[in-house]
Structures are given as structure tokens and as C-alpha cells.
Amino acid sequence: QVQLVESGGGLVQAGGSLRLSCAASGRTFSGYAMGWFRQAPGKEREFVSRIRWGGSTAYADSVKGRFTISRDNAKNTVYLQMNSLKPEDTAVYYCAASQTGGTDRREYRYWGPGTQVTVSS
Predict the structure, then answer these.
(1) Where is 98: in which H helix or E strand?
(2) Residue 37 bridge partners (DSSP)
(3) pLDDT tens by residue, 91-111
């Protein structure tokens, strides 16, 4: 089994930054794409970003230019650097692993428990 655990969430003011981390254990995620999704109360879980094994990246339009995804395969860890945060970014953020590397949550087999990000005005 693959286990993913997020960290780095918290409360920040609008315009601030946070760096989320997701550590994998139980097995290596070699060959997997890693993604970040988020879910606000009353809304569906939405795609934020993903990075494939080879390093290609993709972002939701709402975060382009502000968020950066990266991974350290030697540490089995994926990161999400979030800059210029907005109140609309408030959500629980989840990391996930996929064998297909798309933007649909149904493509992601393994999920972490999530970490709360709250952005105040």
C-alpha cells in the first residue's frame, strides 16, 4: 500500500505564501504522477496541479503563475509552493498518486488525508 501524508498547511494572510509537502511511504512512487487537489466546503474536489515522473507539470488556470509543483524522487516527496495566496485558495489540500497523470481525480488511486489551508483577508 502507498501512504501519503501532507504537511505545511496553516493560516496566512492574503498575499502570503505556504509550502506544502507530501511524503510517500509504504512503497516508492516510482513511475507515478503526483497531484495536488483541493476541496472547499460544499464544493467538489478540484484539480490544482500535477507533476509526472519525467517532470512535466500542469496547473489549474486559477493557480497558474502563483503555485509551483516540484518533486524530490530521492526523498519520495512532492511539494506545492503557493505564493500570492487569495481567500479563494482556502480549502483542504490533498496530495495523490496516479499511474496516468491527468487532471481528473478519478485517475488518482492513492490519497493523503489532507491539510487545511486558510487564507484571511
Answers:
(1) strand 91-98
(2) 47, 94
(3) 999 999 999 999 999 999 999
Phi (first) and psi of residue 85, to 5 degrees = -65, 145
In terms of phi and psi (left: phi > 0; alpha: psi -120 to 50; beta: otherwise), the region of 55 is left
pLDDT over 80 (residue 64) = yes
CB under 8 A, 24+ apart: contacts of 62-70: 62/88, 63/89, 69/34, 69/36
Nearest-angstrom CA–CA distance, 19 and 81: 4
Residue 57 is predicted with a pLDDT of 98
From CA 52, how far away is CA 36, in angstroms rounded?
12
Report which residue type is found at 48: V
Distance CA 51, CA 11 (A): 25
Residues 92 and 119: their CA atoms lie apart, in Å, by 11
CA-only gyration radius of the chain, Å: 13
